[in-house]
Design brief:
292 residues, mainly alpha, 3 domains, 72% helix, elongated
Length: 292
């Protein structure tokens, strides 16, 4: 049986930032608990405790203490990924089942046929479990910062999008479905952040192209908080006219952003609309920041 000191030694050797002496006892306890949690979750999977301890250490952020890094890792899922990296047959079978289950969710959200789903699964399976040129299998990249299933879902989603593009078809991606499945998972949050950045860039470009009067009208309403009556008074028009102006500006803004995002990401406008729904809470703030 491997001792706690051996596990800590393995962890120390793989953690580049080193372990603070004042935290050594707490770190040893946290690592031992993570190893135990992984072993308990996958009793049929063979993985040396010291190997898993080193695997954990190598995937912790270097800008945080060892103890802070360990807190929050998904020990059970990281244990499975580590065992897959080591080639354990039961771990590979369990991860493959997880991959196939997530493919069903992704295929449903993307509304692709079974052939596309199966192709994506095979491509991701190869990526995950077979060595790459001068690099280990991609399963080695999973760092335990969220559920493994969500991490797999993101990879599958990207592959399904690529397959659809290769086939020359537009995806009508139901990101609301994926969002509901993912909940508060940090991996899906990273995906949302990526789309948010791309949407913000498209949105800024469209805002920059607005006519001066349109920008002023938006500024009056969004930044200054003026009512329709107050804006109509400034321009000496009926409130209904001012309301129509602003409604058209907003509709044109969204339409132009859809077209811009669709072109930037090489996707259809339906898919771009889904992305906008995914991060729609950012739109109003984007208007405010840019108009300032």
């Amino acid at each position: 049986m491997v001792s706690a000191s051996e596990i800590l030694t393995a962890f120390r050797g793989a953690f580049p930032a080193g372990v603070d002496d004042t935290e050594e006892s707490a770190v040893a306890t946290a690592v031992a608990r993570a190893v135990a949690a992984g072993a308990d979750a996958w009793p049929g999977v063979a993985l040396a405790p010291a190997a898993f301890a080193a695997h954990i250490a190598a995937r912790l952020p270097e800008d945080r203490s060892a103890l802070a890094g360990i807190v929050g890792i998904n020990a059970a899922d990281l244990y499975l990924a580590c065992a897959c990296r080591a080639g354990d047959p039961r771990a590979l079978a369990a991860c493959d089942e997880l991959l196939r289950n997530e493919a069903v969710t992704v295929a449903g959200a993307a509304r692709v046929d079974a052939a596309a789903k199966d192709e994506a699964v095979q491509l991701v399976r190869t990526l995950l479990f077979l060595p790459r040129p001068e690099r280990p299998p991609a399963i080695d990249d999973y760092a335990g910062r969220g559920p493994l299933r969500a991490w797999l879902r993101v990879i599958l989603t990207r592959e399904v999008i690529r397959i659809a593009k290769d086939r020359g078809r537009d995806l009508h991606f139901d990101v609301d479905m994926l969002d509901a499945e993912a909940g508060d998972d940090p991996t899906f949050a990273a995906m949302k952040a990526q789309y948010r950045d791309q949407l913000a860039a498209a949105f800024r470009a469209v805002l920059d192209g607005l006519a001066p009067r349109d920008r002023t009208l938006l500024r009056y309403q969004v930044l200054d908080g003026l009512s329709i009556d107050e804006i109509g008074s400034i321009y000496r028009v009926h409130r209904a006219t001012a309301a129509r102006w602003l409604a058209k500006i907003r509709a044109d803004l969204i339409d132009a952003t859809l077209k811009r995002l669709s072109a930037d990401l090489a996707i259809g406008e339906d898919s771009a609309a889904s992305i906008i729904r995914l991060v729609q809470s950012q739109l109003e703030m984007s208007v405010i920041r840019h108009l300032r």
